[in-house]
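Issue 218. Parser rejects a valid record. Input:
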Amino acid sequence: MINLESILSNFNSQFSQIQNPQQLEELRVNFLGKKGIITELFANLKNLNSDEKKIFGNEVNKIRDIVSSSLEDKKNFFLNLELNAKLAEEKIDLSAPVRPENKGSSHLITRVKNDIEKIFAELNFEFAHGPEIEDDFHNFSALNIPKNHPARQMQDTFYMKDSDLVLRTHTSNTQIRKMLNSQPPLRVCSLGKVFRKEFDQTHSPMFHQFEGFVVDKNITMENLKWTLEYFLQKFFEIDEIKLRFRASFFPFTEPSAEVDINYAINNGKIEIGKGDKFMEILGCGMIHQNVLKNCQIDNQQFQGFAFGIGIERLAMLKYGITDLRLFYENDIRFLKNFA
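Output the parser choked on:
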């Protein structure tokens, strides 16, 4: 009978002398290759009777497993050595200055959101967040939007299958949640993604909206007008701007207004705050008494105003962008142009 212990001892002796992957591969071939020592042992099984074959086969299997495991561990050892050496050679010096051509920048939408947050932080507004998947009450009913209102129709709203959940159509759901869980006085802003079934040069199925609202005693349209003037002058970095309030209708505000700002065209570019032309920029109004009531706020003691505007709309006006889709195409030329 072949002495299996001597074969294992022979392997261990040679294994202990291994210095590199090439030697390891030679040892593997010597023991596990097509004509290897252990391979030959299995070939000899055909010369044994059934009882001897079972006993001998089990022992050979044990030796093969030991040899295979040892070879695999040593292989991983050499691979780790190689990897560590490569990492040490290719490591990046994080203290080195950034190359100008590789310097990253904030996306234009992010930059505009940061500008908005900075301005309203100066006015001591709180920033709140709400879910992007919303129920009917917080997205529609609490905002005094009737069951038959066009905003509820399938062509405008993304409805979740087999439920009353929707992708929120405005950030006003944040206003409702904040008023339900807080007590006046409130001075709150919310920024985030909203979703509507629109897609063209000036509309996107997903876009970003900014909304602000105040609830307190003795709040009037005059407070709303001052807030909007302050914000728009700061955002467009101008000393003066003319606002024109046009009567409108929104279910959640009464009275409601659309706000126009003055502008001029100079060398083909829009200049905000100059000239006698006007363009619509946002919607606003005094929070409807029913909305306050739905949010369990005493509408005899408190009143408030609210306004909302598309963040992409602000970015397009400030930076002279004519196609909304450019924000989402990730064209490196567009992104670098506003870096």
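Fixed in the parser; the record now loads. The chain has a mean pLDDT of 88.
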